[in-house]
Amino acid sequence: AQSVSQHNHHVILSEAASLELGCNYSYGGTVNLFWYVQYPGQHLQLLLKYFSGDPLVKGIKGFEAEFIKSKFSFNLRKPSVQWSDTAEYFCAVNAWNNDMRFGAGTRLTVKP
Amino acid sequence: GAGVSQSPSNKVTEKGKDVELRCDPISGHTALYWYRQRLGQGLEFLIYFQGNSAPDKSGLPSDRFSAERTGESVSTLTIQRTQQEDSAVYLCASSSGLAGYVEQFFGPGTRLTVL
């Protein structure tokens, strides 16, 4: 079964700093990839997704992620974070079956 | 309602008791998922319902866990003879199709504490 690894448990940045959150998965076949975000006190919501085509995908609020098949990675990036980006970020992978595998999450704290 | 709702929001129970958690998906969503999130860990898939098909129960951790869904509406997750390791947030999500191809919409979760 596929697994998902998120390298950072807690990242602390100052506003305007650049962000990159790592995500690696173990499955070798065709995958669909997702980043979900959970803002404090809110539900999990979709940030962006990759199914096929351009490996650089753009999501809401200026986030983007790059799928690198050779590295089994789907890292999340944002050039300049804001205080409002403080949240927990989850990478998720779906392969041939219907269940989604989520990473452990990365908590991002942005200092104003 | 506009989103996925879950009840109760918090549940504290004693070891050995049975608990029932409820999920109301978004109207019209054919797919419904239950996940468990233990403290500091990712979301663990439990069970998946798609329309009238037999549910995918491959993620249920033991026979103490069961779930039902009435048609394409409400689902209940039942945990019998609760154990302390069952303490977690239980999340429900619904989607209009297969999770791998469409967005899942999550509920707020039920925080279960087993004393």
Mind explaining what this structure looks like?
The complex is a heterodimer of chains A (112) and B (115). In chain A, 0% of the residues lie in helices and 53% in strands. In chain A, a hairpin with a 4-residue loop joins strand 8 and strand 9. Chain A is mainly beta. In chain A, strands 2, 5, 6, 10, 11 and 12 form a six-stranded mixed sheet that branches. Chain A has a four-stranded antiparallel sheet with strand order 3-9-8-7, with no helix packed on it. Chain A has a two-stranded antiparallel ribbon with strand order 1-4. In chain B, a hairpin with a 5-residue loop joins strand 4 and strand 5. Chain B is 0% helix and 46% strand. The model of chain B has no long low-confidence stretch (mean pLDDT 91). By secondary structure, chain B is mostly beta strands. The chains are: A mainly beta (112), B mainly beta (115). The interface between A and B is medium-sized, with 24 and 27 residues.
List the helices and strands and how they pair.
The complex is a heterodimer of chains A (112) and B (115).
Chain A: E1 4-6, E2 10-14, E3 19-21, E4 23-25, E5 32-38, E6 44-50, E7 56-58, E8 64-68, E9 73-78, E10 87-94, E11 100-102, E12 106-111
Chain B: E1 5-7, E2 10-13, E3 19-24, E4 31-37, E5 43-50, E6 65-69, E7 75-79, E8 88-95, E9 105-106, E10 110-114
Parallel strand pairs in B: 2-10
Antiparallel strand pairs in B: 1-3, 3-7, 4-5, 4-8, 6-7, 8-9, 8-10
